[in-house]
Amino acid sequence: MSKKIYFFIDDNIWAFRQLAERKPESIFDVPFFGMLKGAHDNYGLKVQLNLFYQTDESYGEGTFTLAEVPDTYKSEWEANSDWLKLAYHAKKEFPNFPHLNIDYDDMYNTFKNIEREVFRFAGEKSFTYVTCAHWVPVSKDGVQALYDCGVPLLYASYGDPFEYDPETSDLTPDCVELLLDNRKPESKCYKKFINRDYYLTSLCSYNNISSEDEKRIYGTFDYITDEETGMKFKCYSTGICLNSSTLESLPERFEKQKDQEYVCIFTHEQYYHDFYVNYQPDTAEKYNLMAKYFTEHGFEFFFLDEIL
What we know:
single chain; alpha/beta; six-stranded parallel β-sheet; three-stranded mixed β-sheet; globular
C-alpha cells in the first residue's frame, strides 16, 4: 500500500447549526465546509467529521440538535461523500469522558441517534463507522454496543493501566469524580503521552492497548483485534493535533513523519470559529499547510476503513 494520510476533525456541531440557521444555496457556502472543500480541490484532502448529536447547554445559546439539520442538501452531501465523511463522536461536548463508564443501552441509543440523522440529511454514503469516541475511553459495554452498531475499528488510548489510589493519585478532582461515577472494573488510570514529549495521568478504559503493542503498530496500517468484543483497536493519530500545535512548528513536525507509510492528523472544529473562546485565526492555514505538505511528499488522503 502506498503512503496514506488519514485526517479527522472531532467535536463537530457548530457548522451544522450554521447550515440549519442560514439555509444557504450550498453546504459549502458555510465557511467551515467551504474551507474544507478548498483544501480538497487544491490538495486532494479527504476528511472525516466526528459529530456531536447536540450543542452543550453550558454555552447558554439554547440547544441545537442534528434533528434540525435540513435534508434539502442530501444530494450534495452524497455527491461529495468520496472525500467528506460523517461519523459518531458523542451526544455533546460535556461532561468529559462521557463513555468511560457508559452502559450498553446508552451507548447504543446515542450512536443510533446520530446515525439516523446523518442518514436522513446526508445519506448512508456519507456515514462511516470507523470513529473516535469523545475523550477516547469507552467501557467494555460501550465497546460492545459500538461493535453491534457496526463499528469495526475504534480509536484506542495506549499505555499501561493502573488502579486508582486516592492516597497517591495525581488525577484532577474532576477526573476522580468521573472515574468513580458508575465505575466499571476496566476504568483505570494511565500515563497519557502528549505529542510524545511529556505525559500526564489520565483515564482509560476497555479500548486501551499496551505501550508495547502501540510501539509495534505506530506509523503502520496494523491494529489490535479484541477477541471478546470483536472490535479492532488502533491509536489512529501519529502524534499531531493541529489545534495543539503552532503554525510555525508544523513543518518540522511533519518532516519527522514524512517517511512513514501511515500518518494520521486530527483537530477539533471549534477552533475555526471566531465566536469560540479559544479561537485560532490561523486554523485554515494549518489545514491547508498540512494537506499541501503531505500531498507534495507523496501521501494520498484516505479513510481508515479502507485498511479493513
